[in-house]
Structures
1.
Amino acid sequence: MRAVRIVQGTAVPLDRSDVDTDQIIPSDWLKRVERTGFEKGLFSEWRDEPSFVLNREEYAGANILLAGPNFGTGSSREHAVWAIQQYGFEAVISSRFGPIFKNNATKNGLVPVEVGADIAQRLLEAVATDPSIELTIDVQRRTLEVPALGVDTTFPLDESVVERFLEGLDDIGITLRSADAIDDFESRRPAWLPSTPAG
Amino acid sequence: MGKKPSQTLSQKVWDDHVVRHGHGQPDLLYIDLHLVHEVTSPQAFDGLRLGSRRVRRPDLTIATEDHNIPTANIDRPIADPVSLTQVNTLRSNCAEFGIRLFSMGQRNNGIVHVIGPELGLTQPGMTVVCGDSHTSTHGAFGALAFGIGTSEVEHVLATQTLPQPPQETMSITITGELPAGSTAKDVVLAVLGEVGTGGGIGAIAEFRGPVIEALSMEGRMTVCNMAIEFGAKAGLIAPDATTFDYLRDRPHAPSGPEWDAAVEAWSRLRTDDDAVFDREVVIDGSTITPHVTWGTNPGQVIRLGDTIPGPDDFDDPAEKDAAARALEYMGFAAGTPINDIAVDTVFIGSCTNSRIEDLRAAAAVAVGRRVADGVRTLVVPGSGLVKEQAEREGLHDVFVAAGFDWREPGCSMCLAMNPDKLAVGERAASTSNRNFEGRQGRGGRTHLVSPAVAAATAIAGHFATPEDLA
Ligand code: SF4
């Protein structure tokens, strides 16, 4: 996974509450065998509507998703996070996330920015009227700054999660930091244990 | 230094595999064998490619095609495009990453949980994982074996390890002796009836006691296979002479002096006498007669000869509700004798009951008899090797003469990802492990039974034990 330190850019206001993972990526998309290409399925039920916010030109190129409360509830599908990232978002802001979604996001390098309900609402309204508003998320300091609105707030993120983001470590990357211990364990395995050379 | 604290079997196997202690975090466990199939692996391999990673130990990884493959006309291309894509993706991934693959039609191909043991790849004291919940099957050898999700599949491919949070321990003791006519399937269905589908959540269950010790390896695999159905992370059984006899001379079992060293190490794999389990269940084996599920979860189970219960038979409001919904879905009334219920289909197969002993038990009932008119039957061996052995013993002739359909290996109607499906409203007696709504085809109705009961039911046309047949 890629290291993330600062996410700076504009946001798309998705002014709906309780958007569950089934709405983020409908279940038809789970049949795929690839790990990429999910951006086409993102909010696909709503994308047919020309006025849907993702279809609006003024939000093209935004890299932050500004969501309503209770974002990412429902089934645990990791595909929801993949779809959001592959579409081009690096962070999601909401006043509350589904816990599994939040966990999946941190495992994949998508920054979940949980802010107070009043701030979230102010941001939604402001970005809806002015799409050019710049936001800055600093993962190390755990801050969200929106100078145009005078917003400078912090958001919660575990120390270990911050470290993951800063160093670009996914679960595998974290385990591979113990590569010496794995090598050492392997050298002590009994010789009779089975193996299956390819062929 | 004090005396080593007493440990259960699962704790011993766990400790033997700790690469790094978690200290409040999950322990990092080494994985001895990783089994791979076409459904849960594609995105794991794709994830490796995205991260420019390799498979750390292709030699501890083995793959098979089982969930999607047809069980008839296997010389023709797979018709369903999703199935075909999954199988082809597995083939190209195994070629790219250097993993041994048993493809449809090869003699070593078969259901992932059947081929590991029969090739001698599953051995006592090992850790075994697979992106499939019925990985618990391999616990029959005293291995710590559990199912994992796709991101964990990727983790094991890349590192040959898995971080695991601690689990509770549970012992399930079956005392006494089984009555004649009862089988391993009846034992595990009786356990499900006793503890319910949530009785093992958060625990690793060890099956013990004289009934378990008297079971063959096939029977022990049937029992451990369904540990996941009561929510256990894994189920396991201490290895003994039965285990060693089964393993001796298998292709991947140790041989010569290594065999002796292995047996010595394996013999130490048992729960210490004074070890304490977090949960304990005891069931009197002499009371276990043939069982059948009546509802839509494997805990909704009664005995052959009983009547179907209704909501009034349960005190717990959730169970009352579940019973009412199950009766509605299954399409019958409370109070009906189960033996009066007719079936449309009989399925003998799945990783629960598709091994040679299962087929022998069904054939022993079928010999010299005929399947009732109008009953569709499928006998699906668990692997190419099981099929070969059955044909050597002439079992297929017995089945065919009795009117059973003798098929090629695969998961088949266990989960209906291939063309073997129930139609809406169809009722099946099935030797598989899940009777959830739609599991064997949308709207299909599943009753879980042993192979002997399945065969007797096919012949009677309604639920029956072999003893019920004239
Ligand atoms: S036979 Fe059924 S339970 Fe077993 S691996 Fe196949 S689909 Fe899963």
2.
Amino acid sequence: MLKHLRGAFSNDLSIDLGTANTLIYVRGKGIVLNEPSVVAIRHHKGQKVVEAVGKEAKRMLGRTPGNITAIRPLKDGVIADFQVTEKMLQHFIRKVHEANWFQPSPRVLVSVPCLSTEVEKRAIRESAMGAGAREVRLIEEPMAAAIGAGLKVDEANGSMVVDIGGGTTEIAVISLNGVVYSDSVRIGGDRFDEAIVNYVRRNYGSVIGDATAERIKQEIGCAFAGSEVREIDVRGRNLAEGVPRSFTLNSDEILEALQEPLAGIVQSVKSALEQSPPELASDIAESGVVLTGGGALLRDIDRLLSNETGLPFIVADDPLTCVARGGGMALEMMDKRNIDLLSS
Amino acid sequence: MTAEHSTPENNDAVAIDEMPVSVGETLRQSREQAGLTQEAVAQQLCMPLGRIQALEADDFARLSSRTFVRGYLRAYSKLLEADPETLLAIYQAQVGDQEERAAVLSGADNGAGNRPFWRPAAVVVALIVAGWLVSSWFFGNRASTDVPASSVVPPSESVAYSDSVANAPLSTEPEILEGDERVGDASREDAESESAEVATPSAEVLAATRVVEQVETPTLDQLGLRFSDECWLEVTDAQGDVLFTDLVQPGRELALEGRAPFQVKMGNAQAVSVELNGEPVELNIPANVRLRTVTVGES
């Protein structure tokens, strides 16, 4: 009863609970929150206290003293630390409703990876409930991504979406408001960073942190040979000497470093195309495949996939927010036309 | 690739200079400057040749949704090393700025954001009304126990009263007005707090009877009967209540009060003369008739 009363003062939310970033879309307002999914926890006399959440906590990653740990509660698209995820969601939901006097109790639509198990879905549902939601609905991530990218999912026309997130890459063929084929591989932005860290350690004998690796990827990373070569100066701890050293990396080296995770994505896209029904495959070949998610911002990833598959690949507008926007639109569509877009 | 590398700045310049020109024209010019054929572009972008031709002919209807058109334009301008944003701006201007979203949510896009606005308002209004009801019940309850006489009269009473005002004699008018006011007050308060009635039934009944006594006396009709001979008589009022039944001795006068019309049954009709509210009533009874029933004061 009280939850419903408070609910009248809350907005419907669509949450993209991602491994790397959490985005919240509010109906009628758009994307209101885009923060890293990081929580810093202080251990104080055997108790855990949340020190910081989001951007602030991300700056602490890898820079914390002994009694503070900065952790990412989601791993590979699913919840790895239930309690911390709940705390993080609670913090974000409150932040979105900052102007309210009451404790918010919104209806929430959360996107989940398409191959997540019942246990994983339940964990997401319960952590959202624990964070104060009065009703939780789940939608499959590629479905939300397709809606957010502006594809006409309700037509009898196949569309294919590749959503490269922080933890997973989701591939789905969608037609008539339903997912015809879907696949999820645990390769994403995090694996790219990891590959860069490993490459630098192997070739330069130096250790760099995840944050540095991410910066390298964003600034000079590319997925296809032949575009202009860029360079970046980075500093890491030299393994042999034990002191920080500065060195220069170029985009060809990063391309080499990223070969393995990129090959994984290409492989799963190919197998998705192999397994989609012929009619839908021909629709896809005609119009092309849409790339969404942070991974779509990797330079020339569309050209790599086009070259490997022979199909046009296009990057959606504002690929980072596609899933959250799509979730918001799905909420509106469901309310107005009573369409069932939810995952069971 | 070497061809595009040679003139990147040139292409940019073309795109900016020819802002008003259509997307297809811009693409064609840039492509020709880069020395590429449509086939070469189609091959490099892995797109069907028809799509490239449609893009250059500004025939967006042949292409699928706007998401794809924007994607193609971005890929195409990247291939020509032009600034994709310039091209997208031209495209946006060309197709107008209807929202892509509207197409997705076809036909059902109005009032989306309205819901969150009225819901909190509705709850606030409901809370205020509930609070007002509770407080008026609480204070109304206290008031009715303090001054029971003026508090409550059932609404039917006031209706009956106003009905009779027209028939009442002039002399009683001031009293009527006073009563009227009181009834008005009472019924107003009554509407405000229904619960008061339920809470104090004894007080209400008391108040009601008292007010009715005061109010009813002047409203009743006066039936006057005079007898020149011995006569049996029965008088019934409008509600069917028997007001009088007896044998009346000659020379006697009867004054009855009740609501008109009266049913008067007479055993010796020739001996009776009737007055209603002080005015004589003509009975028109034939000479040989003795037993007769008449209705007096029928409107």
